[in-house]
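Deviation from plan, reported transparently: pyridoxal-5'-phosphate complex.
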Amino acid sequence: MAIWMPDLSSGDGPKYLRIVEAMAEDIAMGRLPAGTRLPPHRELAYQLGISPNTTSRAYAEAIKRALLRGEVGRGTFVRSADNDPARADPETLRRTDTGPIDLSRNLPIPGFSERHIRRVMSEIATGPGLRSLLDYQTDKDLVHHRAAGQMWLANCGLDVSVDRVVPVVGGQHGILCVLMALLQPGDLLLAEALTYTPVLAMAARLGLQTGAVVMDAEGVVPESFEAWCHAANPRAFYLTPTLQSPTTVTLSAARRATIAEIANRHDVILIEDDVFGPLKRDKPVPLAQMAPETTIHVTSLSKTVAPGLRVGFLSAPRKLVPALHQSVNLSVWMTPPMTLEVASRLIEDGTVAVLSDQQRVTAHRRQQLVQHILGTDTVPRVPEGFHVWVPLPAGWRADVFSAECARLSVRISEGRIFAMNAAEAPEAIRICVSHEPDEDRLVRGLEIIAGVLQQKPSGSSMAI
Ligand SMILES: Cc1ncc(COP(=O)(O)O)c(C=O)c1O
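Because the crystal trials were delayed, the predicted structure below was used instead.
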């Protein structure tokens, strides 16, 4: 196959920037599709008759601009626009009772938390502490809020002292703070082969290399993690051991123990994303409990109380806590005391535990509907949490399937948007049961999906 050759005949400025600009244009024009592997920078330099330093600088700049992503041992690839949350369609975050039925987003089921938040906000508004909540605060002032975080973490199965708790502005901000605090440009960040892709966008902006850890039906494969440790000296491994998105898998206690042991032995930081943990009963203990000296645990109230609160908590080995506070400082100065106060009161009076139960029970009922409508062949086990992962029958391509659903006014997510390597994405879809406020619309959406599953795949499904 011919290698990609930028057209440098026009334009001025440094050559490396002209390469980046030609690349951006070829991506925008579809001449360089997402997932395309670029030639090694030495080869491109040879073909263009320029120094390898210039092409290497161009690739580094393109990674910084999120045009490319580098994968250690595999090469450099054109990023998928779908992987960049900055480009995701914000319209799909709106919840409405009209228009397309949206089963694409992993939001909490609405309607449970409003009255509790209204009550607590009016208590705060009329109470004596309002003035200090409206002021700048340091992390020392937040002791009370960190203690509430400690209570919430105990609810997540984690026993930590208050000085190891760092309040953040939701889970996503927490992950960004960890990456900013502990990784340097060029460091290797591992993630599950199917992952929460905003983390890849963050990695690209921070100039990190990324590597995909292989997954099987039981989740991430410890041997693949170990192989990365031997081959490429990763700095950190980001993973979601409980109710993984998109696959729903919860990693067994045995696999967790193996991963914790490998991380300890190779001195790799584990970033344990536990935002869905409170939605699962009877789960194995968190990685952070098994490997407290190497794991940073990320949790949030977004999936159980309200994403608009923007409250989350990190818990970290004591030696890493100051760097995490610095990241919070640098990015937002302080996690807003007002929202932290609302969250803390809801944690302390037991409301958050009740809300978590309500989400869990309602999600379970909705998941039973999914199995009932799509059938036990398609959904053999009723999953917990908000999403279902459906490998498609042979012959279906996930993009064609989701386009057909969209044509019938149902939004779902195709597996490719979660894939670190688009070329290796499984032909599967993720359906979220929690996005639609109205269960009748959920049922209608599922019936439409069941109808598409009955169709013959490919050409015939797109002919209308
Ligand atoms: C796996 C995962 N981690 C983190 C987050 C971020 O959650 P938050 O709203 O707390 O930032 C999400 C949100 O969808 C998620 O799916």
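Residues 182 and 426 are 32 Å apart (CA to CA). We consider this an acceptable substitute for the interim report.
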